[in-house]
Design brief:
Shape: globular
Structural class: alpha+beta
Order of helices and strands: EEEEHHEHEEHEEH
GO biological process, one term: rRNA catabolic process
Organism: Temperatibacter marinus
Strand order of the largest sheet: 1-2-3-5-4
Radius of gyration: 18 Å
Family: Belongs to the RNase PH family.
Protein name: Ribonuclease PH
Distance between the termini: 37 Å
Subunit structure: Homohexameric ring arranged as a trimer of dimers.
Helix content: 25-40%
Length: about 240
Amino acid sequence: MSVTRPSGRRVDEMRSIEMIPGFAKHAEGSCFVKFGDTHVLVTASFEDKAPSWLRDTGKGWITAEYGMLPRSTHSRMRREVTSGKQSGRTQEIQRLIGRSMRAVVDLSKMNEKQIRIDCDVIQADGGTRTASISGAYVALYQCFEWAYNEGYLNSIPFTDTIQAISCGIYEGAAVLDLDYPEDSAAETDANFVLTGKGGIVEIQSTAEEEPFSEEEFLRLMRLARIGCQSIEKAQLKAIGK
């Protein structure tokens, strides 16, 4: 089905992707990721110890935090720290980022170390969680390289690459990589977290109006795989692979 997207893109066309590794001077790993007008700074910070509940297991841990700057959106939003608590959305997204990274890392090879990933949305135009996950892979890879070169790790413990992308049903058509005008008007929106080898880590899919069909879901899945292949190419280029 043909549809005119607000951006003029084809239904299977992504926004431009840019990943700038090593963007943050002081972090062990970092990536400034841009999906069109969605811009996220991701850092990965190394800690020479694991959480207490992993003591003497040999396993390490990866956790994540996520936040949006006050003017990352059209109108200023209040910093969550000033309200004294994080929103449910923020908690859900940072847990998703942490789960996604742990899904492609052999934690038993982390020598009881912990890495904290911070995703700060500088500018939002849809797909901030998926951009965060995709950029987090690059930042975490850099952090692992640093830890390996410093002698903290015996290897880089990734088992696969990982990417995330949004898709949706917009004006009756399945489209790839929703920007804000599409996301806010989509009949169905979905976030896919997939691995380079084709594994599925997580799918979040919701009908905003009419229920969507299995056929429509499979169209979204096919688009997600197309998008994730493009993201993986950008990731591998960013880490020099």
